[in-house]
Design brief:
Blueprint lengths: L2 H12 L4 E10 L9 E5 L2 E5 L4 H17 L3 E7 L11 E9 L5 E5 L3 H10 L5 E6 L2 H4 L7 E4 L15 E4 L4 H13 L6 E4 L3 H13 L22 H21 L1
Parallel strand pairs: 6-7, 6-9, 7-8, 9-10
Antiparallel strand pairs: 1-2, 1-5, 2-3, 4-5
Helix pairs in contact: 3-7, 5-6
């Protein structure tokens, strides 16, 4: 990959701007560009590079913009230049469209204790944005520098700042600090794709009773408690693995739908 092209990809990714890389992966006959040519398309249109100009490029940009609107992921298309694009040359091209959107998956962790420390390090290399809230500065300062870690006075009040697409995990010091957060989540007009709470089945029962007493309709508000897949031991690192696996599972299920 050309250094300037890679640099532009890095700039867009670092700025959390979604983009699509279009690559000419195969060609046949008379085509205006070489195999391996690349182009970057943002939601504003062509940003960098070229896959041939003219009708090929115009159709590729149109296809990429449609991917943004339909929230697609990867796509491989093949066009006959004469039949599909109305070009006089009789060639054929195959283009690969790869969407890059590291900001699209937002994971929010309430609590920065042992399991949160392990979970944040598992999520760190993944294409997601991780935010963690806690009232304890000494625990917040232990989190990786790459994530957004905030020491706050009231974690529940931070619910109103969350993106509607956030995947939320509550792992505070106990159900007394979890319940106010869950109550705010349940009362929010947003419908978050995932809400999980660390704890045992008995803790889950206590949380549900308190939410019902607070007037929360649990038919409409669903959360996972205990959070995580039923794998591993009670070691913080293994609990973190089970939670990360469940987050990936729910994310991929939603994407397939």
């Amino acid at each position: 990959m050309d250094a300037s092209f890679a640099r532009r990809c890095l700039e867009l990714d670092s700025g959390e701007h979604p983009f699509i890389v279009v690559t000419l992966v195969e060609s046949e006959g008379s085509v205006p560009q070489d195999v391996g040519s690349k182009m970057i398309v943002t939601e504003s249109g062509r940003d960098f590079g070229t896959v041939g100009g003219g009708r090929i490029e115009a159709r590729a940009i149109q296809w990429a913009l449609q991917m943004f609107r339909e929230d697609s992921s990867n796509n491989l298309v093949q066009w006959n230049l004469n039949r599909d694009l109305g070009m006089t040359c009789g060639g054929r091209v195959r283009l690969f469209f790869e969407k890059v959107d590291s900001s699209s998956w937002s994971v929010v962790i309430f609590g920065a204790g042992h399991v949160a420390q392990a979970l944040s390090r598992l999520l760190e290399p993944l294409p997601c944005r991780v935010t963690c809230f806690d009232t304890r500065r000494e625990w917040i300062e232990k989190l990786p520098d790459s994530m957004c870690a905030k020491c706050v006075d009231d974690m529940a009040s931070e619910v109103k700042t969350l993106d509607d697409h956030s995947y939320i995990v509550c792992m505070t010091q106990g159900h007394r600090s979890d319940v106010p957060i869950l109550k705010r989540i349940a009362e929010s007009p947003a419908r978050y794709p995932f809400v999980g709470v660390i704890g045992s089945k008995s803790k889950a029962g206590a949380i549900r009773r308190e939410l019902i007493e607070a007037g929360i309709d649990l038919q409409k508000f669903h959360f996972h408690c205990p959070v995580g897949l039923p794998i591993g031991s009670n070691h913080p690192a293994e609990i973190a693995v089970s939670i990360a696996a469940q987050l990936l599972q729910v994310r991929d299920d939603a994407a397939s739908r």
